[in-house]
Amino acid sequence: MSTDNGFYSIIDYTVDGPATQAELVDAFAAIQERWVRFYPGYRSARFHVSTDGTRVYNIVAWESEAAYRDFVATSDTDGRMAAIQAALDGLTGKAEPRMTGAPTYRVVRETGPGPAAEA
What we know:
single chain; alpha+beta; five-stranded antiparallel sheet; 35% helix
């Protein structure tokens, strides 16, 4: 079992099909490469697509909330947001965010494999 105590931003979009899923993942991966990956404390961005073609999740891992907050305070947020909007505008399909407020999370509990519970 991991002892992950990191901090996460989970970005959630609805999309109109698998082609838009692929376009959105490519666009958001490029944004991570250009705007985020070199910041101290950044761990990774994982992209998850639903099997029905309607959702994309981008889970961005940070080593701590402080690292994420430093990124927010010191990064070019306006430039990054403009790049996100340009990426969305460039899609051939439709994508809409599902997040409200700050989409940030801490791990508070994890369960993993083990023996079956006794009755």
